[in-house]
Amino acid sequence: MSTPFPPAFLLAADSGSLIRLSPVDLAVIVLYFVAVLGIGFYLKAHTKTGDDFFMAGRDMTAWVAGLSFLAANLGSLELMGWAAAAYQYGILATHWYWIGAIPAMLFLGVVMMPFYYISKTHSVPGYLKLRFDERSRALSAITFGLMTVLMSGINMYSMALVMKVVLGWDIHFSIWVSSLTVAAYVFLGGLLSAIFNEVLQFVLIWLGAMLVPIIGLIETGGWAGMVERISRNFPGQNYTSLWSTLGSVGDNPMGIHWTGIVLGLGWVISFGYWTTDFLVVQRVMTAKDLRSAKMAPIIGAAFKMLVPFIVIVPGLLALAVLPMTLTGEAEALATGGHSYNEVLPLMLARYLGPGLLGLGVTALIAGFMSGMAGNVSAFATVWTYDIYRALWRKDATDAHYVSMGRWCTVLGVLVSIGTAYLVMQFASIMDYVQALFSFFIAPLFGTVILGMLWKRCSPSGGFWGLLAGTVSSIAMWAWVKADPGALRYIAFSPEAKDMAENMYRALWSWLICVSVTVAVTYVTKPKPVAELAGLVYGVTPLPDEGHLRLHERPMFWAIVVSLVLAALNIYFW
Amino acid sequence: MHHRNLISIWFFIGVLVLVYGVIILAAALFNAPHEGREIVLEELRADIWWGALMTALGLLYTLKFRPKKKD
């Protein structure tokens, strides 16, 4: 899980392009744009009803839904940002892919998906309406809509900046071409088009990025050779141990204790993001049947476990083979050197010849566009169903809502472009907007999980818990901004880095949400049990999976993925 | 995805990967210019085998998932 708290990205650079593309590389990139637009035009004829546009007809296979689920997260800053984090923090960055993602994805598939799926809701806010009441839906829909378009704008700006630094492209050209392309194909084919393109983008990301770790490991003589070179280049520093340096905040470059990783990242942030952020959950809701809906997150988890190979390993390889030392952005600007954030383009340029380099750059662009399409299509659904239909037009025709969805795709993109330009003018906004995730996602997870597993949980408990968690998260963030000394209370250390602060703030806001929900529930009236059928564990008869063979059962594959995850963590301990 | 007689997503992916494979293979075989870059381990000729692999994979998916004519 990495979208919620990507590392701080480059804020300014004007040092000319890092890579010069050949005509063959440009042809590869242009073909990509032609393909995604072509798919959009093809799918327009198949996108007529609200279910087609907003839920892709609810007939995706487990593979398509699962890969799309993962690709929507493989967005914007994922490839570049986490390769940079791997150079900076070493293999610790892998926690965001393993313990910070896999358990939550499996939990979504095995435990939560039946309730999302059986309730036939259009969205996570829609589930809150069914489980609690209109207040909880309105609060989560409005905060989600706001968060989505702002994040989309931040991602867009970052992408344009990357294109400027890496390729020397004009920043306005990059913003408008990429965002209008996404707007066009989502406008035409809705979520169906977004999902088709996300699967395509997923394949291209792998094909474009996989050669870097393969050739890099050949150069270093394998994993052991890479570790040996890193130790030689950076004596006294441990970049290749996953857990053994987390006993004390002073022993690792991230300044984090294992409790922050396990409870803050592995529990609250990860479960909050992967099980309640509609951006990703929407993809799984499109599955054609319950078994596919359960399998989709498990398939996504299996591939998520492999993503460090194309993101983290290149960052580690850079520590081993690059002749120069990469630095922070400010120092790189002052000295004319290269920053952490340029690590992936530097590695692409190191190993890839004409054509392959174009494919590598296409992988970066595909990552940016899949993330943006995810934001825009989720925004269109939540705006149309959970805000527009719920609060303004309750009884319009299906065609009217489809039309609204199409136009608010365009609106979402335009607001995102506006945010991108705002960020360009006021760079510090980027920090604030990234904090939005911790404000809204962690408490939402508390509300959804209690609502799903505890039938006594009352509508008022759900609403006030969500509100209290959100407000307390914002308050903690403001407290640290006003008085940095407050970090010692929130993150247990005055030296905690931003990421560690985010982990603990999320944990506190989740605890506050849960505490308030429980307290209010016991003094307010619960919903009648009869109204909770299909929504809550214990009062929902789950369909029998029938006589499936072992390898067809989602639980079997969830156990396999769990065992592989455990083995990887032990191996890289 | 099957209910609406949609062309499979894997067909689109197959076609694009096939075209990319042919382009990359051709660029490798005809030694397209490097734009002044020095490529580490160029002697592995990753462009040839990766281009060939993509061509084969693209062809396989294009054929396997090509749209069938309706009766």
Task: Tell me what the structure shows.
The complex is a heterodimer of chains A (573) and B (71). Chain A is mainly alpha-helical. Chain A is built from 23 helices and no strands. In chain A, helix 13 runs parallel beside helix 23. The longest helix of chain A has 39 residues. Chain A is globular and about 65 Å long. Chain A starts with 22 loop residues before the first helix and ends with a helix. The N terminus of chain A is likely disordered. Chain B is an all-alpha fold. The two termini of chain B are 19 Å apart. The model of chain B has no long low-confidence stretch (mean pLDDT 85). At the A-B interface, helix 1, helix 8, helix 9 and helix 16 of A face helix 1 and helix 2 of B.
Architecture blueprint of SSEs:
The complex is a heterodimer of chains A (573) and B (71).
Chain A: H1 23-44, H2 50-55, H3 62-71, H4 78-89, H5 102-118, H6 124-131, H7 134-167, H8 171-209, H9 211-220, H10 222-233, H11 258-276, H12 278-285, H13 290-306, H14 308-321, H15 329-335, H16 343-351, H17 356-391, H18 398-425, H19 429-453, H20 459-482, H21 487-490, H22 498-521, H23 554-571
Helix pairs in contact in A: 1-8, 1-17, 3-8, 3-12, 3-13, 4-14, 5-11, 5-13, 5-23, 6-7, 7-8, 7-17, 7-18, 7-19, 7-20, 8-17, 8-18, 9-10, 9-14, 10-14, 11-19, 11-22, 12-17, 13-23, 17-18, 19-20, 19-22, 20-22
Chain B: H1 9-29, H2 46-64
Helix pairs in contact in B: 1-2
Secondary-structure element sequence of chain A? HHHHHHHHHHHHHHHHHHHHHHH
Number of strands of chain B: 0
- Name the helix and strand elements of chain B from N-terminus to C-terminus, one letter apiece: HH
Rough shape of chain A?
Answer: globular
The helix content of chain A is: over 70%
